[in-house]
Design goal:
Largest sheet: 6 strands, antiparallel
CATH topology of the largest domain: Tumour Suppressor Smad4
Strand content: 15-25%
EC number: 2.7.1.107
Number of helices: 12
Family: Belongs to the eukaryotic diacylglycerol kinase family.
Subunit structure: Monomer.
Distance between the termini: 44 Å
Helix content: 25-40%
Shape: globular
Oligomer: single chain
Catalytic activity: a 1,2-diacyl-sn-glycerol + ATP = a 1,2-diacyl-sn-glycero-3-phosphate + ADP + H(+)
Radius of gyration: 23 Å
InterPro entries: ATP-NAD_kinase_N, DGK, Diacylglycerol_kin_accessory, Diacylglycerol_kinase_cat_dom, NAD/diacylglycerol_kinase_sf
Strand order of the largest sheet: 6-5-16-13-8-9
Length: 476
């Protein structure tokens, strides 16, 4: 990597200190990089690999372009960077204007880490929001796989990282839908509410950023939480297995430094939890007995969603990648009457796919050609209402991050609602599996939300944020 050609290549990604470090000496710059990047790495992801990537990226780029998410929160980094860029642009600095226009983000970590960063970018309402490339550094790696970045943990040597940087430079931008999730539940009679015990909510739910008390989503005596997802929201047995895996990893992190070991452990926990072989006493885990579900299609009218009693896991899917790269929706044959209203799973059509699974054997059908889960619906909105049930809890998961969700014990109810929030920009390689509705000239889908939505007036600033960062805007 020491020859002149390699050095010249890396200049295409380099950002000088005066853009990155407040108060740094202003450099006179002759070369504008084609693809300036900011790199965020979860140092704890991928066992040792996160730390190794931090070292390699720091050696190839300006070390101030590379951030360990354990030490620096992405909202603070991006807030400062864009404030600096705006300041220099105001002074007529053309270089700063070009950096802002060409900037791309690299995030290395699991799906939860990538979602956290996407939530920050959405909340900050940045001028010219940068597109994001994802490095697979987790167990599922569904987000990287959906956009052609692979699902295996990456090599960390200098040539491999330099090659990845060049892929980022050549990648195309692709819009994907963002989904806002709101959860409303009664505060516990005892204990702290920050966060609600016994909840350990993931980054995506932002327990410490409640919806404002003036927001119409709030009800007296209830607490409302918000968040977002870009890949999937799931509930039921698959989330329970994921929760068991994360709990085990938290107790014994030293054992989870190998991707193959992680996947074997996942499979073993799936068997232990009954995901492959349900006992006669596990009826309470059937989704239909836990919750009533309503969906909204494009017309703006709520309708009941029928869920077969055999379904033990339900997934609201935005991308064609779930559980390590499988596509639960598949390609519906619209010649069959049962699939007449269903389309391919486009990532920017304002709809998500609702899929059910009976058990893990049903999930293994995805490996077969044309295999798929139980297609339940395509919707622009969904609402789960949990009343007193035979179970005291269920399990939920957002983009790889699971939690244990208490269910009502008396006349209370828990409500979870998902609605469209907008779009973010991803970076995709030529082997990208995700499809845009705009790629097919013969197929048009109206992705605008229906104005007859009974709750369209709930348009407060609080509702429109994920809560990943404090929203800020620059003055004109």
């Amino acid at each position: 990597m020491g020859d002149d050609n390699s050095i010249r290549t890396l200049k295409e990604f380099y950002i000088p200190d005066y853009i990155l470090v407040p108060g740094a000496k202003i450099d006179s710059v002759s070369h504008i990089p084609a693809c300036p990047v900011i790199v965020f790495i979860n140092g704890k992801s991928g066992g040792q690999l996160g730390g190794e990537l931090l070292v390699t990226y720091s050696s190839l780029l300006n070390k101030n372009q590379v951030f360990d998410l354990e030490l620096k929160a992405p909202d603070k980094v991006l807030h400062q960077l864009y404030a600096t860029l705006e300041k220099f642009k105001y002074r007529g600095d053309n270089f700063a204007a070009e950096i802002q226009k060409r900037l791309r983000i690299i995030v290395a970590g699991g799906d939860g880490t990538a979602s956290w960063l996407l939530g920050v970018i959405s909340d900050l309402e940045l001028p010219q929001p940068p597109p994001v490339a994802t490095v697979p550094l987790g167990t599922g790696n569904n987000l990287p796989f959906a956009f052609g970045w692979g699902k295996k943990n990456p090599a960390t040597d200098r040539p491999s990282v330099a090659s990845f940087l060049n892929q980022v430079k050549d990648a195309k931008e692709m819009k994907i839908d963002s989904w806002h999730i709101v959860m409303r539940m009664r505060a516990p009679k005892e204990g702290s509410c920050d966060p609600i015990a016994p909840l350990e909510l993931p980054h995506a739910m932002h327990a410490f950023n409640r919806v404002s008390s003036t927001d119409k989503l709030n009800l007296e005596g209830y607490h409302t939480y918000r968040g977002g997802f870009w890949n999937y929201f799931s509930m039921g047995m698959d989330a329970q297995v994921s929760y068991a895996f994360h709990s085990e990893r938290k107790l014994h992190p030293e054992k989870f430094k190998n991707q193959l070991y992680n996947q074997r452990t996942y499979l073993k926990l799936g068997c232990k939890q009954g995901w492959f072989c349900a006992s006669l006493f596990q009826h309470s885990r059937n989704i239909a007995q836990l919750t009533k579900v309503k969906i909204m299609k494009k017309q703006g009218q709520w309708e009941d969603l029928h869920i077969p009693h055999s379904i033990r896991s339900i997934v609201c899917l935005n991308l064609p990648s779930f559980s390590g790269g499988l596509n639960p929706w598949g390609k519906p044959n619209r010649k069959k009457s049962i699939y007449r209203d269903l389309t391919l799973p486009f990532v920017d059509d304002g709809l998500f796919e609702v899929v059910g699974f009976r058990d893990a054997w049903h999930g293994l059908a995805l490996i077969a050609p044309n295999g798929h889960g139980t297609r339940l619906a395509q919707a622009s909105r969904i609402r789960f209402k949990f009343h007193k049930a035979t179970a005291d809890c269920t399990f939920m998961r957002i983009d790889g991050e699971p939690w244990k969700q208490p269910l009502p014990l008396d006349d209370d109810k828990v409500v979870v609602e998902i609605s469209h929030h907008g779009q973010v920009s991803m970076l995709a390689t030529p082997s990208c599996r995700s499809k845009s509705v705009h790629d097919l000239s013969s197929h048009t889908v109206d992705s605008e939300e229906d104005s007859s939505d009974e709750e369209s007036s709930e348009n407060s600033e609080e509702r429109r944020k994920f809560g990943a960062a404090d929203t800020f805007k620059y003055n004109d």
